[in-house]
Write a structure and sequence with these properties.
The chain has 678 residues and is α/β, with parallel strands linked by helices. The chain is built from 21 helices and 23 strands. The strands form 5 sheets. It has a 7-stranded parallel beta sheet, with helices on both faces. Strands 8-13-12-9-11-10 form a 6-stranded parallel beta sheet, with helices on both faces. Helix 1 (7-17) runs parallel beside helix 2.
Length: 678
């Protein structure tokens, strides 16, 4: 099939057709992926059977989307194209699939796993490919998986030992990384270019006007809501929070209830409580965070949703806590004594969230137009589902023929049910064919997904960066479309939107400055940044290894984060497949219990999830059972423990930060120790 490119697409692909490493910067809806398909086909034609292309994406649904809509129609049957994601069994035969196909489309993690595999049949080198296409390449920074792959690429390049693939990056929004000055924004753009080993960041100049005609900008509205005049429901929750504070006897914590600042303060308080073995601090902090969450929910959706959130939490506490101390009983009693009054207040319509009235008005007006299609972007899955329930029950929106469904992420969450890839695709298909006309979406719908052109985009209760703003706005691609920000006058959402507009302008000016640099100055700067990164990584790895070698595993003791019971040493731990930390000590079984069955949205080659592993004494969840080659082994999550080092107690967010060397898992050794008669 012939690939027809517009003039502005022709302009941006020219350096890539010459074999140069470039980043293509085009707005959402301008056809970046189609341009990449053209480059891939030209590359394979030029290589005459010696070329191999890998296309990396950052989200599982994009694998099949790029395969079905872009690469397969234009490259087959001349070239073999294979999609591989975490949802397919092919990922375990990745190296074999690479050998048999000309183009492989996969999630970046699958390639990263293959590059680092210690098994010969699974291992692959970057030199196996002649062209590497990175979708949404602005994620190539810091500890992102794209950047880990490109770190290997740049490391090999600076050794000058092997022929590496050509690089093609695609992005609609490189962002500024929070910069507030042009110099810092320029440094950020240069850093992305250095990480991508790009000779240039390319956007249309000669055909810029054509691009603006093809991808028009929507009309932007600030739909300002009234401030809530009276909030007895919120006031009651704040009073309950103040009562908990009186139990803490700690005046240093901010009382800015219902804010992100307060959330950070109680997260830190919980951490301090765990380290100090102060159960009062730790448990009160956990409950205060739930109350703070309910204030944030009430500020976003209905008071009844906020009440339900608290009710479900306390119901869960009642069902899972096996041992209650004085603090548990105080917190439980506080809620039960105020529960009825909270419910009555939550049902009083005169005190309801005024943002919902504004949202109802926007949707009613916009969906009067026949064939209207829209997306409401909201922060959490919880708020997406709450908005869906509210829309479904609105008589006014029923009359406006609003037909909505949620579109949320596939990652497993303890808060709300995840959507499988198939469920996501089904909702998108219903939206495409018009069975539904409104998506209530989290950030999953911002980037990449092939969603039908919309004429209504609403950002609701969101505080995000300029990249998310630009990605969401890019969904409003229909003629005469509207991009609406629902926010209180002078509120946090509106303030952030103004900051994002400033940073978007800063980003554009920074890219222009980078594009106008002399080739010599640009190359010198990119090389400096790359060498600095190589040295920084080596120093960081060396420092981390020195810390790990300084401690003996038997000297690190782990305590249950909830009840402070000492339960194992680091010497009891082993690592499976470089990531799963399991306890192999046969005596560990006296400290935990296993319950239920965990279902994950992915399949794994050598293992499957069992039940939840929890503290036998207090019921605190510790992790999940890993059934590895039929052997059940307790897998542990570091955030559920406090670690006693030789000189201090600490909590850690990641296992890799724990300062000691943990051995790799040995299956035969484990079976001999744990199964008599093996």
């Amino acid at each position: 099939m012939q690939i027809d490119l517009r003039d502005y697409q022709w302009e941006v692909v020219q350096p890539a057709l010459e074999g140069k490493n470039i980043i293509i910067w085009l707005p959402t809806g301008a056809g970046k992926t189609r341009a990449a398909v053209f480059v891939a086909r030209h590359h394979l034609d030029q290589k005459k059977g010696q070329g191999k292309v890998v296309v990396l994406v950052n989200k599982v649904p994009l694998v099949n989307q790029h395969y079905e809509n872009e690469f397969m129609p234009f490259l087959t049957p001349k070239y073999n194209v294979a999609p591989i994601s975490g949802d397919t069994d092919l990922k375990e035969q990745f190296a074999n699939v690479v050998r048999k196909n000309d183009v492989i489309i996969c999630t970046a993690q699958i390639l990263q796993n293959a590059l680092n595999s210690t098994e010969e049949e699974k291992f692959i080198e970057l030199t196996a490919f002649s062209l590497l296409i990175i979708d949404e390449c602005h994620h190539t920074q810091k500890d992102g998986v794209y950047n880990k792959i490109m770190n290997q690429y740049i490391g090999v390049k600076h050794q000058n030992t092997k022929t590496l693939p050509q690089i093609l990056g695609l992005t609609a929004s490189p962002g500024t990384d929070g910069a507030n000055t042009i110099n810092k924004a320029v440094d950020h753009i240069l850093q992305i270019c250095a990480n991508m080993d790009a000779e240039m960041i390319k956007s249309p100049t000669q055909w810029k006007q054509q691009l603006e005609e093809v991808v028009p900008q929507p009309i932007k509205n600030y739909d300002v809501t009234e401030e809530r005049k009276l909030d007895p429901f919120g006031d009651k929750i704040k009073m309950m929070m103040a009562t908990i504070h009186s139990q803490l006897h700690d005046s240093s914590i901010t009382r800015n209830f219902g804010s992100q600042i307060y959330e950070q303060a109680v997260v830190e308080l919980e951490k301090i409580g765990a380290i100090e073995s102060s159960r009062v601090k730790r448990v009160c902090a956990l409950h205060l965070r739930k109350y703070n969450d309910s204030l944030l929910i009430s500020d976003t959706v209905q008071m009844s949703d906020a009440f339900q959130y608290l009710e479900e939490f306390y119901e869960s506490e009642k069902n899972t806590k096996t041992v209650l101390d004085q603090t548990d009983r105080f917190l439980s009693r506080l809620f039960s004594e105020n529960e009825d009054e909270l419910l009555l207040l939550a049902l009083k319509k005169e005190y309801e969230n005024p943002k919902l009235d504004t949202l109802e008005k926007i949707l009613s007006e916009r969906f009067v137009t026949p064939n209207s299609q829209g997306i409401i972007f909201t922060k959490t899955r919880q708020s997406a589902h709450a908005l869906y329930g509210w829309i479904k029950n609105s008589e006014q929106l029923k009359r406006a023929n609003v037909r909505a469904k949620c579109l949320t992420g596939a990652g497993v969450s303890s808060q709300t049910k995840h959507m499988t890839q198939q469920e996501q695709q089904n909702v998108i298909q219903e939206f495409r064919c018009g069975d539904i006309n409104l998506l209530i979406a989290t950030s999953v719908a911002e980037e990449g997904l092939d969603i039908k052109k919309c004429n209504v985009i609403i950002r609701y209760g969101l505080i995000t960066n300029e990249i998310a703003m630009m990605q969401a706005r890019g969904r409003a691609r229909a003629e005469n479309s509207v991009y609406s920000v629902v926010a209180e006058q002078g509120g946090r959402e509106m303030q952030r939107e103004f900051v994002n507009e400033f940073r978007e302008d800063l980003m554009k000016r920074a890219i222009e400055k980078v594009q106008n640099m002399s080739q010599r100055d640009y190359r010198i700067k990119i090389r400096e940044m790359q060498l600095e990164d190589i040295i920084t990584r080596k120093m960081k790895d060396q420092t981390q290894m020195t810390k790990k070698m300084a401690n003996r595993p038997e000297d690190l003791r782990f305590y249950c984060r909830n009840c402070n019971e000492a339960v194992f040493h680091a010497s009891d731990l082993r690592i499976i497949e470089g990531m799963h930390h399991v306890n192999v000590n046969p005596n560990f079984k006296h400290y935990y219990k296993v319950s239920g069955k965990i279902n994950l949205p992915r399949k794994f080659e050598d293992w499957e999830p069992g039940g939840t592993v929890a503290c036998l004494k207090c019921g605190q969840a510790w992790g999940m059972q890993i059934i590895f080659k039929s052997a059940p082994i307790p897998g542990l999550k570091i955030t559920n423990f406090v670690v006693e080092l030789p000189n201090e107690k600490r909590s850690f967010k990641k296992w890799k930060s724990v300062p000691c060397v943990i051995k790799d898992f040995n299956y035969i050794e484990y079976c001999k120790a744990n199964f008599p008669g093996f």
